[in-house]
Amino acid sequence: MIRLHAPVRLSTPDTTARVALACAGLSGNRHLGRTLQNTPAEEVVAACMDGTNHGLPDAVAFRVRTLVNPALVAAVLTSTARDGLTLLTPADPRWPQSLQRLGAAAPVVLWVAGDPDLLREEPVVITGGTRPDAQLRHQVIEVTTATAQSGRLVAAAARHGVDDLVGRATLALEGRLLTVATTPRLLDPGPGQVVVSENPPYLPAVMASQVRTPVLLAALAEKVLVADARPGTGAYRTAVAAHALERPLGVLGDPAHGVRGKRVSTLVEVERLV
Predict the structure, then answer these.
(1) Contact assessment for residue 229 and residue 251, using Cβ atoms and an 8 Å cutoff
(2) pLDDT tens digits, residue range 110-140?
(3) In this structure, are 148 and 16 located in the same domain?
């Protein structure tokens, strides 16, 4: 068991253990996820610490033993409370049920800024590249306007280009916005907004978290629209994840400049998604 000082004892043992696992960079690890389906998180951490492992691969157990630091976990929990962030675990009724699509690769815990009740709704994801041209910017604004004015929740990633344009257009229309970020710490959501991340907001974002953000965006979605999703970009990874998770997927702009080929073979007309 991870023993913490009094200021953070309000966190449940399960939440504390899940934060510890996230601090060890294991959120979304399939081996860990399968173990957590049958064993409480605090027991998994304790078993790794004493060497019994609960059937986890040695590399995963070693990572827990090496990187789970009670002082660090306590500092993250204290800072989370101080900054007004909400911690959600799968036991919380506000936990997005759509994350079940990820199975054992689902996050172990979520940090949320803004209104966590918005996570009960599946959003329309509009995401894309970082350098949209004038024509694509116009298309993105038109689609975002139609989606926001319909009353649906709009979602995008916390990055420059298309996603930033989607966020600004949604807020200009007083629409509701969900942002998936590598960290919620630098964002300040207002009413009708929520920012979600599976990464401890006070630790450096590792490469794995950069790859995971597009996957979370796709998993949360009711449907996904991508613009200028060139191979290797976050938007392309979101499109591939959406296809793998069988989410309705549409393309804005020139498909030759983005999603194409056998990896994403089923595309839906944008008009059917807005």
Answers:
(1) yes
(2) 999 999 999 999 999 999 988 888 999 999 9
(3) no
Residue pair 152/162 in contact by the 8 Å Cβ criterion: no
Domain region containing 223: 116-272
pTM: 0.87
What are the CA-CA distances from residue 194 to residues 134, 155, 188 (Å)? 28, 9, 9
Cβ–Cβ < 8 Å for 111, 202: no
Please indicate, yes or no, if residue 207 is contained in any of the structural domains. yes
Q: Which long-range contacts (CB under 8 A, 24 or more apart) does 49-57 make?
A: 56/31, 56/32, 57/31
Q: Please give the structure tokens belonging to residue 81.
A: 């409370």
CA–chain centroid gap for 22, Å, is 13
Query: Count of domains in the chain?
Result: 2
Asked if residue 93 is part of any domain, the answer here is: no
Residue 74 in domain? yes
